[in-house]
Amino acid sequence: MLRKVILSVLISCIAISLSAQQYSFLKPDPEYKSYKWDDSAKLHTLSADEMKLNEVIIKDKRIIEYYFVAQDTLAMFTTHHFIARVNSDKAIEENNTVYISLANDVKVIDIKARAIDKDGRVTMLNTKNIKDVDNYQNLGPFRIFAIDGVEKGGEVEYLYTVRHQVNVFGTEYINRSALHKDIEVDLYSPSHLVFISKSYNGFPDMVVDTLATTKRHLAAQGHNIEGYEPNEEFSAGDGALLRMEYTIAYNKASNDPDKRLYDYNDFCQWLYATLDKSTDKQDVKVATKIIDTMKLKNLSDEDKIKYIESRVKTSVQVREDAGGEDAMSLQNIFKNRVCDAIGIMKVYKLLFDAAGIKHEIVMTSDRYNKPFDGDFDSRTYLQNYLIYFPTTNNYIAPTEIASRYGFVPSDWICEKGFFMHSITVGKDVQTGVGKVRELPCNDYKTSMGEIYANVKFDFDMGVANLHFKQTFSGYEAYSIQPFYTYLSEQDKKDYLNKVFQSYFPDAKPTNAKASGYSESDLYKNPFVVEADISTNSVLEKAGNKYLFKAGELIGPQSQLYNDTTRHTPIENHYNHGYHREISFEMPEGYKVTNLNAANMDVYDSTSSAKKTMEFHSYYKVDGNKVIIYCDEYYSALRYPISMYQQFRTVINASADFNKLVLFLEKK
Amino acid sequence: MRLLNNNTHTVLKKILFVIVLVHSVVPVYAQKDNVYSNLRKKYADDNAVFVSRKDNVELKFEKGQLMVYSSNYEELLLLTDKTSGYSERNVYWSSFSEIQDLDARSLIPDGNSYKTIKVKDFSKTNEISEGTFYDDARSYKFIFPGLVNGARSIISYTEKLKDPHLFGSFDFASFAPTEDVEYSVTFPSTVKIHYKLFHINDSALHFTSKVSGKTTTYTWKMNRVKKIKEEENMPNFSYFTPSIVVLIDQYTEDNKTVKVLADTNDLYNWYYSFVRNVDTSVSPEVKQVVDSITNGITDNLDKVRKIFYWVQNQVTYIAYEDSLGGFIPREASLVCSRRFGDCKDMASTLMEMIKAAGLNAYQTWIGTRDIPYTFEDVPAPISTNHMICTYIQNGKYYFLDATGKDSPFDFPTSMIQGKQALIGMGKDKYQIIRVPVMDTDKNIYYDSIHIQLNKTHIQGVGILKTRGYNKIILEWRLQNMDKKDEHQYLVGLLQKGNNKFSLDSSSYENLNDRDHDLGIHYSFGLPDYAQQNGNEIYVNTHLEKIHMNDLLDADRIAPYNIEFKTIDKSISTLDIPAGYKVSYLPDNVNYNGPLGGFKVNYIVKDNVITSSTYFHLNTLMVWPKDFDEWNKMIRALSHAYTESVTLAKQ
Fold first, then answer.
1. Which of A487, B57, B483, B541 is such that its CA lies 20 to 30 A from the CA of A42?
2. Bridge partners of A364?
3. Same domain? A162 vs A232
4. Any idea which of A531-545, B115-129, B146-160 has the lowest mean pLDDT?
5. Strand partners, A458
6. Which residue of A88, A506, A539 is in closest CB contact with B549?
7. Which residues of B fall within a CB distance of 8 Å from A149?
8. For every residue of B542-605, which 3-state class applies, written as one string?
9. How big, in percent rounded to 5, are the helix, strand and coil portions of chain A?
10. Does one domain contain both A78 and A126?
11. A30 belongs to a structural domain
């Protein structure tokens, strides 16, 4: 939502700031005009191994060009040339239709496509198969086409060029899992507009073409690149994709040719200027009045912040489409109870100013999308707003309804961010200054899942009867605690049933209830679900002995039993831990013969001082009652690939415990 | 680390979509409003209720043409703070209809009355579903502004339908419960109509007929209609929710009587008008292809089989709905050269190719199992959504559906089993024949393993054999999988015992052979599976527990839909380790019920314990009256699985 705001600002000033008075209008044609495909199409030669693959991307060439189509009109052209060998029905289905987004006024310059069958016969794109769709699956307008004549063992090829509105930063991905035999990316710009780029996760580096004279040209080439492995668990999702970022950095024809454009500082000044410009005396008065009625005086800073946040989040909804001049006044925002992201930043800034609470605005990325890079200033990383409070050293996430003080979205911390605060320059004019700093991870103890199971056996019926209670705190509660109250009674029932049935598939829970989900409970008290359950899924029989599947009471566990090659580093969403207590009454006349099997302790380091993850289980006997305790935690968010084996052993320890079976036999 | 199972995930995801609306500052609306508080009480489990839904249809003549005007009105009252799921709505149309006088508004509680906010922004959207390349179905998408607890959202519009064949059906149930629902049809005396009700208890329906001048109005009303609830494995909701179908038999205008859809003859004639003009003369290109694939084959059925497999292999399915193109098949020569087409293109291609081989085959209209109607009950286009080709030899019907990629010849796709086929045989000539339901023994899933114990560790070899639909599904997956994903997929498919299962080797038998059972031979290890207790070892020999705990919720409303009848067999043979004997063998369990049954058997012979589970399903739909029976069967089976064999040291 923020990106939209920034973009509109950028687009409006682009022509003015990037064209140069002295820039000569004499220039070569845009590249797409001279880029051609091979008129004599024939099948490419593949190795025997490649022939066995369902899909091989033989060529993936992308040309991005910034180009002055008129003295003051910068345009952006992108060309995509793609050739794939298809050897399965699925590969055919994935490649014989192409979807080009026309959103934001994209114009198609040219489309060419053809299929080559396995005998080398060529079928050209039938223009009747090109369709325009006004709004494809609500993603806006698209031009789509289907390519005739594609068959197994053949190739699909297409080449198209579109013109976009100028966007001065962008991203290229390699996000298909097929083998890319040949990938090329070219970025052209007028020679005075200097673009820079950075590649991540194995995307080939862009290199400056020193031979280019009439344009600036960056180019990357890669061969035999295996695409992303989308199935890897505990990885950073899209953040682990092969990716290249590019952004404009300098306008060499401007009065200040060495000034870095569109960097983080530049954004900071824009943001504070925008907030400052939109604030009038009336706004400040409204803010002061609201703070006055809250009567915060005797509260600590932390309590003041929490009170203000709770009040704003229960009164104002943040919505992308709620922008505009009119929507920026505090009075209107509280009256309409809706505003956009920048509007809510203004609300908090003025309220915290009025309450005398020092604060900084922080921008960062979603690290499962793109981890924030403090060394490569690009607007692409300025995705999400946070507010930082120096006196309490903690944060809020203004745009996130489910978040509360201290629990901002977990994927927005444990990385760097850009911290900004306002300074006053001249007479009453505010601007901002900023700096890249670390957004620390959470302490695992704040985000726990706990289980308390109290079991009694009914051997006559062959069932275990138990009271089962599960609690979730912090990030473990994030996806349910703030929302539970809004579910209909039916949805609440369904939710509880699903939770209990995920442990005991045959269970019909009775006295099921949830607690800890009111506004005042959020992330302060745990969200709790509990019920009485009768199940035969944890009790088996072998002759006159009973097998109690005690491990199943901690529920299905993630496992990494398969020893496969790890491709990406380990990343978790947040640090977290579990505590479980399974207690059962020993039936009269019975004994357990293998309680020692419940003793496990697995951790990542031989020196206990350095433990960052551990699974530890043990038991106690109290009269005829046995209690098994089981503690597990993960306190370091990331591990390099070299630590993967240690990570596996801890993850697998809990999965092993899940298979714990106790033998109950007559004394 | 905690693993969320899929079910919990779905619920959580659903919850995550809920955008929480502001609540604490909004005064809960108007305690004084009786309608609100009554309905709030009546529908305590729901977030919203339709106060009223109406569809009033008028049939009238314009320039000699019969037009259908359907005036829709609906008023939804929000009963809780969970309003966001109700703010986005669509009004749909296609190239056969147009939307007139569309009005949408929110009524927001304001003191003792309501404040009206009209929707201004209606965005036109293409409705292209997953798996369809192009579709000319469109909608107006819009958002009701400002919805809060106690607010009402109102939509009204008129849909003008240009072809009376595409009229008319109405569902009394919707996504929210409905307090008052009304459907009416007003028609001139020169128009003859008939109607049929589905899943409606007579006492729940109020019907009135009113004659006014030269027009008659039929009105059907219901109260307190339950909402349609999304449930797993539910069939299309038209199988169990109240609905009505009204069809126009004929009309007379300018002394000319035009038949519309009085019976199946009319339906066939209408369909025939679309295919009548498709060029079915055999083109030289098609003839050449057919000659090359049937070269040297003398048996007619073998020729048809070859042609069917060729179309299956060579033509990719792309759904392409473009106004009348949705009814008119493309010519075979075009489909053959572009190598893609939708169902009717494939059907007409098959037909033409079979014709080129000197034989006869027929265009066939059919409704998939998504549609509950028979042609006799509903002789209308809403009874069909698919086309296939039928070949007849010696009185036997071969239903050829080339959209099913791995279906063997003479094996209909699972989605048309048991459905009526309308077989077109030229002008005024057609037959209605039911596609057979493939029997249990044609769809086998048979996993057999031979295992050995090394202390608690299991080492084994196995063969998984699949036949029929079980094979078709599996084969498609295997053929279309990236090599690097294959191992992981097979682990998931063959995993048994627990997730410590490791797959050591695997090979295929008859992969890509449509006419024989697909076999997967494999070997595996399973550490720490058996339980050692002193001198005893316990082995639960049901490493694969088919249908364990597949219970249906007691308060489930929808029938449980099953894709095909099947036999699931699972057999394990265990070598008794040296120095051990069997000290306990569980009892055999047999169960036979109306829906299916199972046998769990144990045999010890020659130092080998053979345990087998044989489960057969005899139905394609479990109706609510049978839920208890289903659960009884599954509980008995699940209980049988809890027994372990005991081996004792000699």
1. B483
2. A384
3. yes
4. B115-129
5. A463
6. A506
7. 337-339
8. CCCCCCCCCCCCCCCCCCEECCCCEEEEEEEEEECCCCEEEEECCCCEEEECCCEEEEEEEEEE
9. 25, 40, 35
10. yes
11. yes
The tens digit of pLDDT for each residue in A270-314 reads 999 889 888 899 999 999 999 999 999 899 999 999 999 999 998
pTM of the predicted protein model? 0.82
* Interchain CB distance below 8 Å, A138 and B19: no
Is residue A194 located within the same domain as residue A287?
A: no
Nearest to A248 by CA among A199, A193, A200, A190: A193
Task: Mark yes or no for CB contact B533/A490 under 8 Å.
Answer: no
Both A453 and A434 in a single domain? Answer: no
Q: Which amino acid is at B488?
A: Q
Residue A232 CB neighbour total at 10 angstroms: 16
Task: Classify the C-alpha dihedral A471-A477-A479-A483 as positive or negative.
Answer: positive
Q: By C-alpha distance, which of B160, B159, B137 is closest to B66?
A: B160
d(CA B57, CA B62): 15
For the record, the structure tokens of B71 come out as 């005036």
Q: Which residue of B has its CA nearest to A519?
A: B24
Nearest to A447 by CA among A422, A472, A421, A417: A472
Q: Does residue A256 belong to any structural domain of this protein?
A: no
What residues of chain A, 110 to 149, have a C-beta less than 8 Å from chain B?
115, 123, 126, 129, 131, 133-138, 144, 146, 148-149
Interatomic CA distance for residues A74 and A577, integer angstroms: 53
Domain encompassing residue A341: 264-439
* Number of domains present in the structure of chain A: 3
3-state secondary structure of B295: coil
Cβ contact B3–A555 (<8 Å): yes
Residue A387 falls inside a structural domain? yes
Query: On the CB side of A30, how many CA atoms lie within 13 Å of its CA?
Result: 21
* Domain match, A598 and A482 both: yes
**CATH code assigned at A374:** 3.10.620
* Same domain for A448 and A433: no
| Contact assignment for B47 to A314 by CB distance below 8 Å | no
Q: What is the DSSP string of B133-154?
A: EEE--EEEEEE-TT--TT-EEE
pLDDT at site B216? 96
pLDDT tens, residue by residue, A234-268: 999 899 999 999 999 999 998 999 999 999 999 99
Spatial strand order in the sheet of B205-212: B113-118, B97-110, B152-161, B65-78, B48-62, B178-188, B215-225, B205-212
| Residues of chain A contacting residue B21, judged by C-beta atoms under 8 Å apart | 317, 486
Other residues' Cβ atoms within 10 Å of the Cβ of residue A12: 9
How far is the alpha carbon of B644 from chain A, nearest alpha carbon, in Å?
A: 5
Whether A477 and A603 map to the same domain: the answer is yes
Q: pLDDT tens digits for A492-529?
A: 888 999 999 989 988 889 999 999 999 899 999 999 99
Q: CA angle B282-B285-B290, nearest 5°? A: 75
Residues in CB range of B568: below 8 A, 6 or more apart: B445, B446, B546, B547, B613, B614, B615, B616, B617
Binning pLDDT at 50, 70 and 90, where does residue B31 land? very low
Place of tokens 């923020």: A2
CATH of the domain at A508: 2.60.120.1130
* Cα end-to-end distance, chain B, whole Å: 41
Mean pLDDT of B119-142: 76
Q: Name the domain boundary from A186, A217, A251.
A: A251
Of the residues A439, A462, A485, which one is the last residue of a structural domain? Answer: A439
Asked if residue A259 is part of any domain, the answer here is no
CATH number, domain at A157?
Answer: 2.60.40.3140
Question: In terms of domains, do A563 and A626 share one?
Answer: yes
CA distances (Å), B182 to each of B166, B185, B222, in order? 20, 10, 7
Residue among B53, B87, B46, B78 nearest B173 (CA): B53
Nearest chain A CA: its distance from B599 CA (Å): 19
Bond into B597 cis (ω within 30): no
